[in-house]
Structure formats: C-alpha cells, structure tokens
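Our preliminary data section would be incomplete without showing what the modeling component actually yields. Below, a chain of 94 amino acids is followed by its predicted structure, encoded as tokens that our downstream tools consume directly.
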Amino acid sequence: MTAPGVAGASAPTIRGSIAPTPGITAQPLSTGAGPRAEAMPRSMVSPTVAQLAAVALPGLAGLILLTFGGGVVGYRQANSLRYVRTAGAERFLA
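Predicted structure:
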C-alpha cells in the first residue's frame, strides 16, 4: 500500500505515521545563514570598536598572564640547580 508522495511519486506508508494536516504547506527555507538581521538588535548587527575591545581584552589579558606565569616557572626551574645542596651528596658519587 502506497501513499502519494512528492511530485506525484509513490512512497510507502510507514505504519503508525501521522497523516499530514490538510491546508498546511511547507515554508521555504530562508537563504541566510542565521537569524535575519531585522530580528537582531542593532548592537549585534554592527558592533563598535569599544564593544569588540570589551570582548577581546579579557582573553588577551589571560594569554599575557599565562605567558608571564610560564616564564616565571621556567626561570625558576632553570635556576633550581643553584639551590640544590651538594655538600652531603659527595658521598654518593664515589
């Protein structure tokens, strides 16, 4: 048993499927990639330089902090040999 499909082609009826509601047609998809510009607030359509900076500066500060922190840790690790006590280690070397 088949039901009419798109463009007059027949498609099998799936058991338990719901019949299409008469009078309702499919809406064409919009050609845009997202919400329409008319529906968005003006601040989202064309951001100002200040708005872009407000979003970018916390991330930039985080990158600088991680870079500085890595430099501090690396410097301490590179100079750690100065702080090792070698007076008692000589007996293990012989």
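The chain has three helices and two strands. The CA atoms of residues 71 and 77 lie 10 Å apart. Preliminary results of this kind motivate Aim 1 of the renewal.
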